[in-house]
Amino acid sequence: MNFRPAQLGDALPDLPCLVHGTDGSAWALLEWALREGHASRIGLEDTLVLPCGETAADNAALVRAGLALAVGP
Fold this sequence. Notes:
Layout: H1 6-11, E1 18-19, H2 26-36, E2 39-40, H3 59-71
Parallel strand pairs: 1-2
């Protein structure tokens, strides 16, 4: 799955790509960005729910979940 528009890659090949989604796409895009080596972010401005679907208690809970995806079990 390629979420990065080809036009941006062609027009700006030397610029880093910061990937982030909103709501339902936030976790899928974070996982994709991690696999593809792109910078990413996760937090309350992106989603209110954890990957498991539970509402996050706070921003720190979202960041911990994102870090867990990045470093693995």
